[in-house]
Amino acid sequence: MSDVVKNIIRIGIGSVFIIASILKLITIDEFEIYIYSFNIFSFFITTILSRLLIVGEIVLGIFLIFKIYYRFTWKATLTIQILFTIFLIYTALFRDDGNCHCFGDLVQLSPMQSIIKNLVIIGALFLLKLRPSELQNFRTKKIHRPIDSKTHILYIIPIIVLVGVMIISPTDSIYKMIYSTEKEISTIDLEESFEDVKKIDFEEDIIVFDSISRFNLNEDNNMIIVVSSGCKYCKLGVKKLSMIMEREGNDIDDVDIFIWGSPEGIKAFREDTMTENYSYWHILPNKAIDITHGKFPIFIWFDKKEIVKIGDFRDLDDDILWSI
Asked: Which residue in 41, 160, 199, 214 has a CA-CA distance of 20 to 30 Å to 253?
């Protein structure tokens, strides 16, 4: 195989890694929730690992394209592709994931499609393996090369990429420290809504508004969520909440979702966020906007009917729910 073809293949694989990492970064919130759904790490650790994975893919892509520490990079890339393929085989066998998030949420691939992609990349990597003569030349050059000729690159590129990723998409904990603002709601409008909201009953594919049931705060701890059925971040926040609630063993009866939108949108919201067993209440959009000042989603924590905390979806983590 000619060197030109090999260079095209090598640059192509490196570009796939970089493109995949950028697409993950663009939809980092969805990627975090996907990793968290495996119930292995806490959400805080998940936010760190998801970004380190993106950094690793970008660095490998750069090292492949520019042939930096090529022997190490080739082995690392092959190892990672094999590990990812094993993970995808597990996912394909034991989960019903429509998207493995290898390219984030913008380009959706099923685990089986991604397995095929990885096998193609693994096959292409073997085409790029150094021949014995090239390996001997590589070792000879390595012996005569100054020890520090490229060592700085091994550290500088990952550090630059890591800093760049954390600036573009800081973790929730860092984001809150940098952009932290007090969340405010209209408590008067919230209390008035208790008289107006209608209980939503889901009967197969039909939504029924129960005009008899009245909303009452629990005497113990309680949470109210105000959302729009068509809001992307509302779906992310409530899905994140439902995962944390299930993992931590919190009582879902202590959570009430005030939602506005079309019946079809509400049904889709309930399914997408895995909250089929939660209490849903229909609220008029103008009342929801008055309560939240137009910011969605809003999570309101109560303790003995007194508001103790107001937050958005970035204020949710494994520890914050212990107060419920």
From this structure: 41
DSSP output for 239-256: HHHHHHHHHHT--GGGEE
How far apart CA 238 and CA 215 sit, in angstroms, is: 20
Beta strands in the chain (DSSP E): 102-105, 198-203, 206-210, 222-228, 255-260, 279-282, 298-303, 306-311
Beta strand spans in 98-248 (E): 102-105, 198-203, 206-210, 222-228
On whether the CB atoms of residues 275 and 257 are closer than 8 A, the answer is yes
φ/ψ of 146, rounded to 5, equals: -55, 145
Please give the C-alpha separations between residue 213 and each of 26, 84, 183, 188, 206, in angstroms, as whole numbers. Answer: 42, 50, 30, 21, 18
- Name residue 61's amino acid: G
Take residue 174 and report the two structure tokens written for it. Answer: 């860092």
Q: Is the pLDDT of residue 145 over 80?
A: no
Q: What is the pLDDT of residues 73-90, one digit of tens each?
A: 999 999 999 999 999 999
Among candidates 239, 227, 255, 234, which has minimal Cα distance to 323? 255
Closest residue by Cα to residue 244 from 43, 97, 47, 32: 43
Distances 76 to 8, 22, 35, 61, 116 between C-alpha atoms, Å:
19, 20, 22, 11, 19
Q: Which two tokens stand for residue 104?
A: 């984030």
Q: What is the DSSP letter of 130?
A: P
Give, in order, the Cα–Cα distances in Å from 137 to each of 49, 77, 125, 143, 154.
Answer: 37, 22, 20, 10, 21
pLDDT of residue 222: 86
φ, ψ at 282 (rounded to 5°): -85, 130
Q: What is the arrangement of strands in the sheet containing 198-203, beginning at the earlier edge strand?
A: 206-210, 198-203, 279-282, 255-260, 222-228, 298-303, 306-311
